[in-house]
Amino acid sequence: MTSMTGPSAPSKNTAAFYAMSAISFGVALMAMLIAFVYLPVDPWVRAFLALGTMYLTTSSFTLAKVIRDNTESQSVVHRLDQARVDRLLAEHDPFRAVS
């Protein structure tokens, strides 16, 4: 059992997982497009469903990006770099006389 309190190395996705994710997204999007074409409803209902699908797709990408960025910002390397920058800024005196 691993401890959740200590820092851990970021996990890398395998090529198979990446391919499975891309194929899954493609299949789901194609299924929705096919459903729009063969759905026996008025064109305005199809347009509404298409806009809803586009909104859901773009918001899913945005959510994934936000989660990724949040995870990266909490990494140990980022925190160490930020501590170094904070230390340099604290030691810097802009009014010190240049000799």
Describe this structure in words.
With 99 residues, this protein is mostly helical. 72% of the residues lie in helices and 0% in strands. The protein contains three helices and no strands. Helix 1 packs antiparallel against helix 2. The longest helix is centred in the middle third of the chain and has 31 residues. The protein is elongated, with a radius of gyration of 24 Å.
Care to give the gist of this entry?
Helices cover 72% and strands 0% of the residues.
Shape summary: elongated
What structural class do helix, strand and pairing data support?
Answer: mainly alpha
Indicate the radius of gyration in whole angstroms. 24 Å
How many separate helices? 3
Helix content: over 70%
Query: Low-confidence runs (pLDDT<50, min 5 residues)?
Result: 1-7
Number of strands: 0
Order of helices and strands: HHH
**Distance N terminus to C terminus?**
58 Å
Brief descriptors of the model:
single chain, 99 residues, disordered N terminus, mainly alpha
Topology of helices and strands:
Blueprint: H1 15-38, H2 43-73, H3 76-91
